[in-house]
Design brief:
single chain; 479 residues; alpha+beta; Nucleotidyltransferase, domain 5; 16 helices
Length: 479
């Protein structure tokens, strides 16, 4: 059975899914990603990632899948060092690793954050790739000098499978060095760095064929046919392509460990000078000519997990489906009541919760006779309120298509991700939002987006419009 295959390398899991040419899943498998912890350092292991992906591709082939193409998506910001003729340790810091905070601070002594925003479309954070590279330059000079180039996670996997190097624009947008208006590296930013843009591979559009799988990997998998491999892009953006590409005014709410809320627009309709300090970020989309506008809070379902862990006296790793059902059942008792509990997350100065351990979680104003179900309801409502704030911010800047859009009509909100399986959470969000809220029926949006982009690179689809039109996007309205 022929299939387009999507690979997604996430922080927690690595996923591989085979789809038919209409986007219907044929076979899906996943492996837990491995984070190597040492004191306050968190590293990704490149060799481990490649081994898991090859193992999962072998599983597909054993299921009698013939791979017509592969598209690869991944988390952003992390970069793997590679060297063709030198022995190099192919490990890198995870996106949330805080080692680069000092490098970010020092960079902005000579380069203002507003100037940085007007070039990159990003509110400066320590997690961006150039600050990670500065840390390696300052603290691991031997490794830095050995590396021929540094590759985003999806580019690293594609390079190992094909021997070819490139970076797609959606992940280049997360390096902190891309001029998104010119769609090229910024000379002004690199002038303030001790290395130049040749540290990165060439830029290409998502969905362009990078190469074909190396012979020794084909032999290892027991196949004799060519497999075209393309870069997908940033995981959330690949998901938006599968769910919301070419659909007009849509806001996509990706509800996972963190909550990323984004819209798709045109850069020509955005004035970056006026948007600094509004909390919005911009980047180039996987669809050429499009940008994504997004805002996120990096603690969403992880809060529910940890509150259940706290009140049920179980570790997060031990939680079962019945625990989440009990959480919702107890919370529903207070669904029609206004909770007196003021729940909030007091963020530390860098806005990211260290390794998802929620050291800064605070529950305030809880009377001694409070039922824990009230606390659970307060958690749900807090998360819904955070989403509403971001959606309203996006609504203010989301561009209109003058030919098609009614300027009095609010954008649709389409939710994807694991959080959509929590009925109570979705009900409360639907009640709070001014816009209509839908749950998309695509269950594996990120790997599907990557697979579609891989299909474009392999000429399964002639272009982005045909790939997007090939799949059915049913959706269910949240009442």
């Amino acid at each position: 059975m022929q299939a387009i295959v999507g690979i997604d390398i996430g922080t927690s899991n690595i996923k591989v899914t085979a789809f038919d040419f209409q986007g219907r899943p044929i076979y899906s498998t996943s492996r837990q990603n491995k984070i190597l912890e040492q004191e306050t350092h968190y590293d990704l292991d490149g060799a481990y990632i490649i081994d898991q992906i090859l193992d999962m591709l072998a599983e597909l082939i054993e299921y009698d899948v013939k791979i017509a193409s592969i598209g690869i998506s991944s988390m952003a910001e992390s970069l793997f060092p590679v060297a063709e003729k030198k022995n190099i340790n192919e490990m890198t810091m995870a996106w949330y690793d805080k080692r680069s905070r000092k490098e970010q601070k020092n960079f902005h002594k000579n380069f203002s954050k507003s100037r940085f925003y007007n070039i990159t479309g990003l509110n400066s954070e320590y997690l961006f790739s150039i600050f990670k590279l500065l840390w390696y330059y300052n603290h691991r000079p031997q490794l830095f000098n050995k590396a021929d180039s540094w590759l985003p996670v999806n580019s690293y996997v594609a390079y190992k499978l094909t021997g070819e190097k490139a970076m797609d624009y959606s992940l280049a947008s997360r390096t902190g060095s891309l001029d998104i208006k010119k769609q090229d590296w910024s000379p002004k930013i690199f002038k303030n760095l001790p290395f130049n843009s040749t540290i990165f591979p060439p830029l290409i559009e998502s969905g362009n064929k990078l190469g074909t799988m190396k012979e020794h990997f084909k032999n290892k998998l027991g196949i004799d046919y060519e497999i075209p491999i393309s870069l997908g892009g940033h995981d959330h953006i690949c998901g938006s392509f599968a769910v919301a590409a070419f659909q007009g005014r849509v806001i996509l709410d990706s509800m996972g460990t963190s909550e990323n809320i984004l819209a798709i627009g045109s850069l020509s309709q955005i004035d970056l000078d006026k948007l600094h300090n509004k909390g919005l970020n911009f980047g180039l989309h996987v669809v050429p000519g499009k940008i994504y506008i997004y805002q996120a809070f990096n603690y969403s379902s992880v809060i529910i997990n940890n509150v259940i862990s706290l009140f049920f006296n179980k570790s997060v790793d031990e939680l079962e489906t019945k625990d989440f059902e009990k959480f919702n059942k107890e919370a529903r008792k207070f669904q029609d009541q206004e909770s007196p509990i003021k729940f909030f997350v007091e963020q530390n100065e860098d806005k990211f919760i260290e390794n998802q351990k929620l050291k800064d979680l605070n529950l305030l104003n809880i009377p001694l006779n409070t039922d824990r179900g009230e606390v659970f309801m307060a958690v749900i409502r807090y998360l819904c309120f955070k989403s509403k704030q971001i959606i309203e911010n996006l609504e203010k800047v989301l561009p209109y298509n003058d030919d098609k859009d009614d300027k009095n009509e609010l954008a649709e909100v389409i939710a994807i991700g694991g959080g959509t399986r929590n009925d109570l959470w979705m009900e409360e969000k639907g009640k709070l939002l001014s816009q209509p809220l839908y749950i998309n029926n695509i269950k594996r949006a990120v790997t599907l987006g990557a697979a579609l982009l891989g299909g474009i690179g392999a000429d399964v689809f002639k272009d982005y419009q045909e790939a997007a039109a090939a799949i059915q996007r049913g959706k269910k309205k949240v009442n």
